[in-house]
Structure formats: C-alpha cells, structure tokens
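Input record (one chain):
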Amino acid sequence: MVIIFGDVKQLPPDELRQILQQCGITRIDTAARYQNGESEKIIGQSGLAKDFTIDTKVLFSAPKDAHLSPEAINKSLDNSLKVLGLEQVNVLYCHAPDFVTPISEIAKAFDEHYRAGTVQSIVPLAGGFLLSNFTKEGVQGGTRFSVQTPFTKWYDHDSMHDAISKLRAISEQSGLGMDELSLRWLKHHSILQDQDIIIMGAGKTKQITGSVEKMDRGPMDAQVVTSLESLWAGVEQDAAAIVDFELKP
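The corresponding structure, as predicted from the sequence alone:
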C-alpha cells in the first residue's frame, strides 16, 4: 500500500513513520504541488525519504500551460530530488494532462530521465467524491470541488450523483461506511493482483490505521459486492471522460 503525504501540518513525521511501519506501508506518495512544496521538504528534512520508497509528481500549474515541456519536467524533478535528498524517485507521475506540449516531447523527456536513472517508473495520473463534499445541492467549501476544476467536470453528472445516492443506501443497509465499501472492494473484489498497490489519502495518522484496519476485515458479503458492481452500468458513459486524455479543458 501507498500513503499520500499531502497535508504535512497534521502529520508529524516521527509519528507518521511509526504508524506507517506498524501498518506495513513502505511507500509515500507526494507531489511538487502539495502544500506549495512543503510536503516534499518535510519528507526530505525528516529523513522519511531515506526510510520509505518515494513517488512524486511533476509540478502542475494549469491545463493550458506547458507544465510537461522538457524544460518544466527537468526543473520540477531536479527540485524534487534536491529537497527530498534523493538521487532517484521510485515513480514520477504526470500530475495532470498538458494540452500544449506534444505528447512525443513529453514521452521523450520522461524516457530520458528513466534512462538516466533519476526515476524508476513513469506513470500518467489519470477525488473526495465519496465523502459527499460535492452533491446536487451544492459544494462544500475548502474542497477540490469548491471551484470549477476537472473534478467538477468529471463528477457533476446526474449519473454520478445517483450512483452516490445508491451507494449511500448500500452503506446503510450493510452497516459499512462508504469508505470501507470502497477500500474493501478494491482490495478483495477488484481486478487488482497481489503485486498491485492501493494509494490511500490521509490528513491524520488515525485515518491511516483506520483505512488499513478496514481493508484487513476481508472480503464482503456476495450480495453487497453484487450491489456495488451494479452501479457501474449507470455511470459507465460519463466515467469515460475521467480516463480520456483527449478530454479538452
């Protein structure tokens, strides 16, 4: 499993190190953009970068900016390695699509870093929706849905809201929280294999242990799984835009 290291203010490094080790988590996911760069700095200064495998993302500005130009990738990765105190990161992600730079140039730049050994793997990165921060009635302030972003474009559909309503009903009937339904389905009922990973987000250390405990409760009742998987038919068409790189902002 991998933990997203975003809100550094609420995750004391020493406490986080102990919790992660107790939970068997060996990888930390961060980004040049998280907390205006403070996330990577804290990971480097606290020594977490030496104790865990680190994944990070190229600094993202806006979809219409050339944030994945070779120059931008080089600058972002060089700074990440510097503040993390590393010579290599495990995975370097594209934080978001770049609709300006030709994809051939983006691919070449990533390939050069892979061949140079500054990154081990390269991955394109395709949300809080399950937390009901975003509903038909309105948006909760202070979340990624509180302004017009790709997240609102991806999820602000009747089909998505209807699916969440049905998911909430499944949660109430089964006595399992919506986050637990999601985590246990991913670990025990999805197509993920043993070698695959689940990236968890947490703003507090207790959320880390809570998520791990929920996944460790094992497979769910067959009827619950069937109900969950039936939701896909209703969102399949609108969900296509989430993974479509050609979607224009």
